[in-house]
Each structure stands twice: as structure tokens, then as C-alpha cells.
Amino acid sequence: MVAKILGLFIAAFADAAMAWLKARQASQKDHDIGRVMAELDAAVRGKEVADAMAQADLDGRSDDVAKRLRDGRF
């Protein structure tokens, strides 16, 4: 009788541990996806800034673009 109760307790604990591990893995995947998306967004934004700076240099407006970047209005 005690062995049966102990076996049920161990089985319930194992199920809870597996559910926790699966939830943790799903959370980690979401975190990884978010990190990759943030890196891609930063790369695209960096390219946009570089393109704008290059165009501003061609147009002779590099001071205006630099001021906008400092003010955070880009």
C-alpha cells in the first residue's frame, strides 16, 4: 500500500517535472526568436542610418542628418 502511494507520488512528480521542462524550453525558444528579431531590426536600422548618412554626404546635408541622429529623430 505504501509502495503504491509512493509510486503514484513519484509518477506525479515526474509528470510535473516534464511539464515544467517543456514550458521552459518553449519560453527559451520565444526568447531566442525575440533576440534574433531584435538583432535583425538593429541591423536594418543600422543600414538605413548608413544609407541616409551616405546620401546626406552626397547632398551636402551631413550636418543636418548628424543633428537629427543626436536628437533621436531619425
From TrEMBL:
Keywords: Signal
Claim: Signal is one of the keywords in the record: yes
Domain of life, per lineage: Bacteria
Signal peptide: 1-19
Protein name, as recorded: Phage shock protein B
